[in-house]
Amino acid sequence: MKGLVYKDFMAFWRMGKMFLLMLLIFSAVPVMSLMGYGMAFCAMLPFSLIQMDENCHWGRLSVMLPYSNLQLVLSKYLVSWGIELAMAAVSVLSQAIAGAALRENLLRTLFFFAAASALGGIINPIAFRFGTQRGRLIFVILIVVFTCTMVSLGKIVPTFLSRLQALPWLMLLLALIVNALSIYLSQRWFRKGVRA
To answer: Is residue 101's pLDDT more than 90?
Structure first.
């Protein structure tokens, strides 16, 4: 499993340095609407990793390796969650430097992190089932809807958070449920969409 996570992270590192720079910029600017963009880009990461695998014909090689579908799928999720957490930490730090209150800062970041994780959980099974070429239209529609929603919520969330402190925790619970279902569907569909 460590080898798969390392493979996916190195594939991202080689192909995604500009992507990572863009994520850092969006996360480092202490504006809530930009954090929505940054988290939307984080949610796109597994889709990009799947596309890299397709371009390298990783599916044919993976059939010969002693990895289960769950391990092959889970590595994409782990790399994505790791980068989302790193970007969330950068965002918390930049907002703290800008003088945001720590509690509100953490709650806002938790909300956007959970929302991005939930979006990734929705997108990934589509990519594993249909592949990145056939699933691209659905992917683009979901990203556009999510980004517009997050940018709008960037202006509204601070007001809601002051009234409803449980909102980020509810979003995190939703993200956990969505990702559990997503991992289950992705590992069931992996052979059909990418690995064959």
So the answer is: no
| 94: nearest Cα among 151, 29, 23 | 29
136-141 own/partner pairs: CB under 8 Å, 24+ apart = 139/44, 139/47
pLDDT in tens, 171-190: 889 889 999 999 998 888 87
- What is the structure's pLDDT at 69? 80
Domain assignments of the chain as residue spans, ordered by start: 2-195
31 sits in the region (left: phi over 0; alpha: psi -120 to 50; else beta) called beta
Q: State whether residue 30 is helix, strand or coil.
A: coil
160 Cβ contact list (under 8 Å, min separation 6): 167
* Long-range pairs of 61-67 with CB within 8 A, sequence gap ≥ 24: 62/195, 63/195, 67/4
CB atoms within 10 A of CB 19: 16
Evaluated on CA atoms 173, 192, 190, 146, the torsion sign reads negative
- For the chain, what percent of residues have pLDDT higher than 90? 4
CA dihedral 175, 180, 181, 182 (to 10 degrees): 80
The Cα–Cα gap between 183 and 186 comes to 5
Structure tokens given for 153: 């919520």
> pTM for the full model?
0.76
**What pLDDT does residue 196 have?**
46
